[in-house]
Design brief:
7-stranded mixed β-sheet; two-stranded antiparallel ribbon; binds glycine; 13 helices; Dehydroquinate synthase-like, alpha domain; Rossmann fold; alpha/beta
Length: 361
């Protein structure tokens, strides 16, 4: 079992790496003294793991309730929350219960926001089961849901008691969702570490990624994430904004396609390509950097473009409503070189539109 301790100003919590779900129960006992658990999961994940975890909890005399909602980004809504609040109240979930988010990013974000608001706050444990959630969304306390006009617009910073990463969960993840998580991993590599970038690029060129590769990659990404969150928990100084590399465009793309066409990671991969093109256009990075970014995306299997039919001005306007934008001025996170990125860069609208043109087919 390995551990990363995430140290924040007001509290600290561990990210626990273990292949054994019994360790999860040990940590429940350590952190949740009331032994009352409310599992929240989705239809993809619950069929594999919910019963097993419930059983382990019941053996230890936990009081357990569960709520399962339909899988998919389209469910990360206020409507799902509303159903959750009503269900929780109807079965008697009170402040002694802890919420356990068992699932990928959608479950983690929705259950996390539920935990932050239901009865003004219940304890929360994140148990990520997707690659994307293991390397990014379960760590750092961002919770929330989408609205029709914007991604992650309603939410709160709400830190869990701990995060439990068991890479065995990945065995039932379909390849599309594994690839989805790779986009966030590529994000870290371009952003923070040239050596990690080169290592990752080599791994992508092999036909098989081993279990050890996955474990090492996930651990490394959690270290990157913990380091950034520790330095700027609530995204105030610009440091945590770096984690939004590729996300300004991705969020606009997910919103314009009504959260139906792209998985989050697929949109992030296109968003990363977009900022590489943008950065090269304004000579923020050189051509070789842009090409290296294009190459790693292709090696990881990301070669999608966006449909020419999408309205470019709408995409531009959606980016102006991004949480990082100030008075409708988009603040981009752009690559300087592999291993170095910068936040809060402004780019002229005409150049943005040209870059959108380049990623359209
Ligand atoms: N996923 C970006 C962040 O947690 O800040």
């Amino acid at each position: 079992m390995r551990l990363i301790k995430l140290k924040l100003k007001l509290n600290s919590y561990p990210i626990i790496f273990s292949d054994n779900n019994e360790d999860l129960i040990t940590y429940f006992k350590k952190y949740l003294s009331n032994r009352k658990i409310f599992f929240i999961s989705d239809t993809n994940v619950s069929k594999f793991y919910l019963k097993q975890l419930q059983k382990l909890c019941l053996q230890e005399k936990f009081n357990v309730y569960s709520y399962v909602f339909k899988a998919g980004e389209g469910q990360k809504t206020i409507d799902t929350l509303n159903k959750l609040y009503n269900y929780a109240l109807s079965v008697g979930i009170d402040r002694q219960f802890a919420v356990v988010a068992l699932g990928g990013g959608v479950v983690g974000d929705t259950a996390g926001f539920f935990a932050s608001t239901y009865m003004r706050g219940l304890k929360l444990v994140q148990v990520p089961t997707s690659l994307l959630a293991m390397v990014d969304s379960s760590i750092g306390g961002k919770t929330g849901v989408n609205i029709e006009k914007g991604k992650n617009i309603v939410g709160a910073f709400y830190q869990p008691q701990f995060v439990f990463v068991n890479t065995q969960f990945l065995k039932t993840l379909d390849p599309k969702h594994l690839k989805n998580g790779m986009a966030e991993i590529i994000k870290y590599a371009i952003s923070f570490d040239q050596k990690f970038f080169n290592k990752l690029n080599l791994i992508f060129q092999k036909s098989i990624i081993t279990e050890k590769d996955f474990k090492d990659i996930i651990y490394q990404c959690c270290k990157f994430k913990a380091d950034i969150v520790q330095r700027d928990e609530k995204e105030v100084t610009g440091i945590r904004e770096l984690l939004n590399f590729g996300h300004t465009f991705a969020h606009a793309l997910e919103t314009i396609t009504k959260y139906k066409q792209f998985l989050h990671g697929e949109a992030v991969a296109i968003g990363i390509l977009f900022v590489a093109i943008l950065a090269e256009k304004i000579k923020f990075c050189d051509l070789a950097t842009k090409q290296k970014i294009e190459e790693i995306l292709i090696n990881a299997g990301f070669n999608e473009k966006i449909s020419k039919k999408l309205n470019h001005n709408t995409l531009l306007n959606l980016m102006k409503k991004d949480k990082k934008s100030v008075s409708q001025i988009i603040k981009f996170v752009l690559p300087r070189k592999i291993g170095q990125i910068c936040s809060r860069i402004e780019v002229n609208d005409q150049i943005i539109l040209k870059a959108i043109e380049e990623i359209s087919k």
